[in-house]
Amino acid sequence: MYVLVILLIVLAIYVIAYTYYGRGILERRVVKASPDRLTPAWEKFDGIDYVPANKYVLYGHHFASIAGAGPIIGPAIAMVYGWALPLIWVLFGNIFIGAVHDYLSIMASVRHGGISIMSISENVMGRKAKYIFLAYVWIALILVLAAFISVAASIFVTVPQAATLSVLFMPIALLFGLLVYRTGISVRMATLIALILLVLAFIYALRTPLHLTYEAWVVILAVYGFIAAALPVWYLLQPRDYVNAYLLWAFVAFAVLGALLTAGYALTGPAYTSFKAPGAVIGAIPGTAAGKAMVAYFWPAVPLIIACGALSGFHSIVGSGTTSKQLSSELDALLVGYGAMLTEGAVSSLAVILPIALAWSFTSLEAATGAPISSALSKVGIDVAKTPTILGLPAAERFYTGYGIMQALAWSKILGMGNFETLFTTFRTFAAFALSAFVLTTLDTANRLARFAWSEFFDWLKPIDETAYRFLTNRWVASMVAIAIGAILAYPQISVYVPELERHITVYAYAIVWPAFAGTNQLLAALALLTSALWVYAVLKVRGWISLVIMAPALFLWITVTAALILWLVAIAPGLPLLYKLGAGTMVAITLILDILLIALFVYGLRRAS
Amino acid sequence: MSTRGVVEVIGLLITVVALLILAFEILYVGLFTGSIGSKGEVTMHSILTTIGWLLLLVGPALWLGGVPVNIKKMVEARTGRKLS
Asked: What would the 3-class secondary structure string for chain B be?
């Protein structure tokens, strides 16, 4: 299979989905969006969370927030099944579930004054559903925080240049915000200044790594997440995500250009390897009996592996959390909600699956292209003799190594093969930085959302004891609880001896927490889409095939994820270290119970609306 | 001095300290040694850099304080509501 074929198929599917399903059905026939309705950003402006934003700024925020490690790490892990199954899952999930539930969550929230999807559930499923949903979301967000702190810390240890750039990036974004909001400089001029500084920072970072240990990064990132979640959105979140969006667009644009320039190369990876994989793929410790057992069947295990690239419940919390409070016009929601999700799918399919599939076998690709791949890899510490295929690398490294190889192949066609090694290290660092930028933005947004969920959960306390309520929901107190628990789960790194490799390997916390995070997150997606579907059915009174097209994928997803989480609890959790058995294991068990309660309330709500 | 004034002064001080730390670490240590900190270690330079980074997030927020005037004006014009 050639790179060009995959590229054309993916782009065509996205254009058709956005035009016909997004605009034609969801915006015009289901929601009937209107620019004349005043959105909560205007009606409830408070200068902290409710602040109207330019649609491109908001697209940047939403895209940067929803695109965390999920669209990259998940597909990179799932490549163990070959490239075809992950690609099909990403495209199907993206169009029929992920983008739909992102868009509907935003619009449902906007029509309910900017409240979260959890509180909307109160209107369609009753008051109990709201508190169950809020508890569920808060737990799921802790797992998001744990996984993402661990991913970011591991990237900064492996590619310390990305750490330098991340540190330089924040002041540049703050400067952009101050220029626009305080000095009155035009957005265009401020953008230009910020982008020039960003390029200079990238050049500086390439030559100047910032070294720290994994544990130190976990602590620093937790402090960062705590502070950033409590600051006003106009100060850090909006300008940071706006500038970040340029970086992420550049990242996606390079992926498309890279695919075009390497269009004639054949993928060295197999389309399909097997329908089952070892338990280590879904979080078991490698080298152990659970890690070796072939229990990770693609179905139902796929939602434990591929999270945000295909669909993610976390998005509905972002959509109905920070995004809906900043939406300036209802017509902006299609680009922001549906469009950002398709862009995220493009990250998974074109920037992760395609490059890894191309660079799968290092020696085959070297023979086919004549590029000095082995030599370039040895410069970043990868010995092709010991690691002949890209699957021998940890998930995050598969991504930035694959991306680096594809880009180096592409641009060395223009700049000469003599520049291959320099191009490879440059684009590898760029990819690692893009991943860390994805992760950092999601990290503090996740903590902000955990703060919202925490505050909404305690609203029953307000009439009983206002002082206690005000203390518990104080933005600094509410920002601290979730990130502290997340950091404890992210802190350990485990050294495991793998007899097959005859060496110890380091297992970062994210490899263990990931399936628990992904599973609860995907279940949340099913619940959020079911809530949105019920809102469409009961409140908007949309019936017939359109209602069915929204509800059927949600039910399919609910069955899939519930089965996957039960599989994880039975086959994987018992073999984990105590912290994760008690931490992640208990959280998953609780979320499964809450899930059953919510589905019962959903059925009740559906019957009441019929 | 009002509470708001005290907060602004503290914010300004934090901002200045953060900028000095970052300028020293990035422009002096980073440029002249080619790296900040050493691989696999927690060094004074890398800790100072991250502290400077975190302080720079907080300092301007305290110093420059509330919602910018042009955001307030935009909301007042659209909603007809007077903001305090």
From this structure: CCHHHHHHHHHHHHHHHHHHHHHHHHHHHHHHHCCECCCCCCCHHHHHHHHHHHHHHHHHHHHHCCCCHHHHHHHHHHHCCCCC
pTM of the model: 0.84
Closest Cβ opposite residue B54 in set A47, A182, A223: A223
Residues of chain B contacting A206 with CB distance shorter than 8 Å: none
Give the residue on B whose Cα is nearest the Cα of A201. Answer: B26
CB contact (8 A) between residue A232 and residue B53: no
- Residue A554 CB coordination number (10 Å): 24
Domain locations in chain A?
3-609
To the nearest whole angstrom, how far is the Cα of B1 from the nearest Cα of chain A? 24
What tokens were used for A35?
A: 């620019």
Which tens digits make up the pLDDT trace of A444-458? 888 988 998 898 889
Domain of residue B53: give its range: 3-79
- Reported ipTM: the value is 0.89
The CATH class that applies to domain A3-609 reads mainly alpha
For B38, the closest chain A residue by CA position comes to A211
What single-letter DSSP state applies at residue A265? Answer: S
Categorise residue B26: left if φ over 0, alpha if ψ from -120 to 50, beta otherwise: alpha
**Structural domain total, chain B:** 1
pLDDT digits (tens, 9 = 90+) for A172-204: 988 998 888 778 788 889 999 999 999 999 899
Question: Which residues in B lie closer than 8 A to residue A221 (C-beta atoms)?
Answer: none
Nearest to A408 by CA among A471, A350, A458, A365: A365
Please tell me which of the candidates B46, B47, B68 has its beta carbon nearest to residue A234: B68
Residue type, A310: A
